[in-house]
What we know:
The structure is a single chain. By secondary structure, the chain is α/β, with parallel strands linked by helices. It is built from 18 helices and 10 strands. The chain has helices at residues 3-15, 20-54, 57-106, 109-114, 117-159, 161-208, 210-215, 219-271, 277-319, 382-389, 412-417, 433-438, 446-455, 459-463, 482-496, 512-526, 561-567, 570-579; strands at 343-351, 357-366, 371-375, 397-402, 405-406, 419-422, 500-504, 530-534, 546-551, 554-559. The longest helix is centred in the middle third of the chain and has 53 residues, at 219-271. Adenosine-5'-triphosphate binds next to helix 10. Its main location: membrane. It holds the Pfam family ABC_membrane. One of its GO terms (cellular component) is plasma membrane. One of its GO terms (molecular function) is ABC-type transporter activity.
Amino acid sequence: MATGDKSLMGKMAGIFKHRKFPYMFGLLGCGFLDSGISVATALMIKFILDAIAEKSMSAITEVCIQFAAVMIVLSTVKPLFQYWFGRTVKKIMTDLRSQLFLHMTKLPISYYENSHSGDSISRITNDLGVMERALSGNVRSVISLIVSGVGSAVIMFFLDWRFAIAMLVMGILSAFVNARFAKPLRMNSLAIQKNAGIQSERLSDLIAGTQVNKMYQMSDRILRKYWESNGELTKLSIARTKKSAYLNSTNYLLLWINNGGAFTLGTFMLINGQITIGNLLSIILLLENVTNLFRNLGGFWANLQSSLAGADRVFELLDAAEEPERYIAPSIEKNDAGAACMIEFRGCSFAYGNKDRVLDGLNCKAKQGQLVALVGPSGGGKSTVMKLLLGFYPLEQGELRIEGKRFSDHTLAEWREKMAYVSQDTYLFEGTIADNIRYGRVNATMEEVVAAAQAAFAHDFIIAQADGYNTNVGERGTRLSGGQKQRIAIARALLKNAPILLLDEATSALDSESEQAVQQGLERLMKGKTTVAIAHRLSTIKQADVIYVIDKGKIAEQGTHDELLKTGSVYTRLLQSQERNCDVKALYL
Ligand SMILES: Nc1ncnc2c1ncn2[C@@H]1O[C@H](COP(=O)(O)OP(=O)(O)OP(=O)(O)O)[C@@H](O)[C@H]1O
């Protein structure tokens, strides 16, 4: 067994360590009972034929009664074990699903930014399903084969050792042939599972991007990509079928050699009086179990390997590093709470993975209660500053502080507890409007939910809905307009009542009338709070205490609106561009 296989087996064993006794009890019980019936039948035939040869009616009756008793016990107990085993596997899979879901809640933003949601979904649907088949059907088949094959071989050995040795030689040859097929089959299945992930990606792109798809008539391109991966899947599946067909035909050849040898040897021994007819028939029946072991073990082992390919992908997801409880500080400066700003970036540098630096020695700060605005050209690094503030990524260099305390002195949960965030891309969860606002503070009363909605100027449109606050927002809030979704998100942030408010173009989706209304609500809320706002429309940040113009990861200018206008540089150009009724970004695109 390769090292990779060993560690995979170790991980498989690890997932049901709390249920290993019920699992092994059910598995071995089913394995022994699956094989017990065929072994008992072969033995009973020997005893009946021996009794017939002795012409003893009482012996025949006794054997028949014993046979009936054994069969009644086996067929009563077998369903009980089957139920026990099936139930245990379901419980293991439920635990694993919960573990995976919990793990996914702890993965860092970088994981989601670097992987496709379709692939992650495929891992917890397709791959987990394949893994369940491995834990139940495949493992059970292997155990049943081993128990019945080894049991029959031992009985055969006692009935006639010459047969046992001849079969052992054939078995070793068969096992060798099958083992050679196992690895290619597993690699092939891994590729198939990966391809299933790609198909899920295509599907989720089709569903999530349906509007863009229709607007830009992209159906042909999306379809072509889907067909490509479908074609690849067909190629891989055909390759697997071909390999399995070669394996089966080789096994059949070995089976015929095996059976032919057994038949010739048996006839020779019977004619020479070296074996009874009862022993010979019983050996021929038991032989089937032994040959099945060698013929099918490789095949089942290969199937198990194929299923483990699904497990591989599940463990890859489970092994992805979780977000740490807190980040380690890149420098060792002491805390200086005395000179506390509410937020401070000191010489901060950051790059996404191994790419070029997006922020390069950035210095900026926000004092308690200030409104600080981040403006600047597209791609300058404003959203990255927000992501660092939210603790989505650790700094590469420099110091980020809140209330004078370093980032690393807080756990990420404590850090985020101090902030409320409204992003450009409002996400609403499946559920009612009230539920969505209450995500800001789960134990908020209905009165507090309504007060937050009023402050965000969302109350009027909410009560105009058929079910008011109990209206279902639909998937991602599709039953609401962009402006309505954003006002709900603002209400959610208001309810959190955190000392720091982060607004990423929070009013971008509102028309000028509702923008003004929400702006007033925000101003009321911002009193006493420290706010960092990214704004492309400069009208929304004229009142800011400090405006930082971020360009190419550095602070290009800073000051109040009036101060920056006097310098007549980047900020002035942004403003002039806006006054010409252009999008601020247009200047840079
Ligand atoms: N997850 C990511 N992985 C790699 N690069 C990224 C990632 N997110 C942003 N970038 C890159 O970082 C740079 C800064 O992006 P950022 O989103 O911070 O700019 P921005 O100033 O907010 O732009 P905009 O005004 O257009 O929203 C860009 O070059 C962008 O391509």
